[in-house]
Amino acid sequence: MTTEFPNCSDIFASSSPSLSECWLSRHDWKNLDRKCILYSFAIGSNKGKDTFGPRITCYEDKNLPFHLKRTQFPVKLAFAISINKSQGQSFGRVGLYLPEDVFAH
Questions:
Q1: What is the DSSP string of the chain?
Q2: CA triple 12-14-17, angle to 5 deg
């Protein structure tokens, strides 16, 4: 099963412990299927390198009379980014909604 998705380049992932930049890093999606996600690093020293994000199985251990299991991708979409976090990054498209003053000075 291959899924088509829009050009989404901002994801936070924590799926590859061998690559230290994987925590809170920006990635480009390449492929998504039932078992794994293929993406490449968009920033940092690993920029352009491809990596896989496998699905992980989580078990609930709450002394229940049954065994609860769920499978998920360890990925969070980046819906927002702080002003300080975005310094030094280039974005193709940016939308801002600032109903109040952002800076105190």
A1: ----------EEE---TTSGGGTT--EEEEEE-SSEEEEEE-SSTTTT-EEEEE-EEEEE-SS-SS-EEEEE--EEE-----TTTTTT---S------SS-S---
A2: 145
pLDDT per position as a tens digit, 40-87? 887 778 888 888 877 877 777 777 777 777 777 766 665 555 666 556
Give CA–CA dist 101/4, Å, rounded: 39
Domain segments of the chain: what residues?
Answer: 11-77
pLDDT for the residue 51: 83
pLDDT at position 8 is 46
Query: Within the chain, what is the greatest distance between any pair of CA atoms?
Result: 58
Taking the model in full, what pTM does it have?
0.45
Tell me which amino acid residue 11 is: I
Q: Tell me the three-class secondary structure of 43-72, residue by residue.
A: CCCCCCCEEEEECEEEEECCCCCCCEEEEE
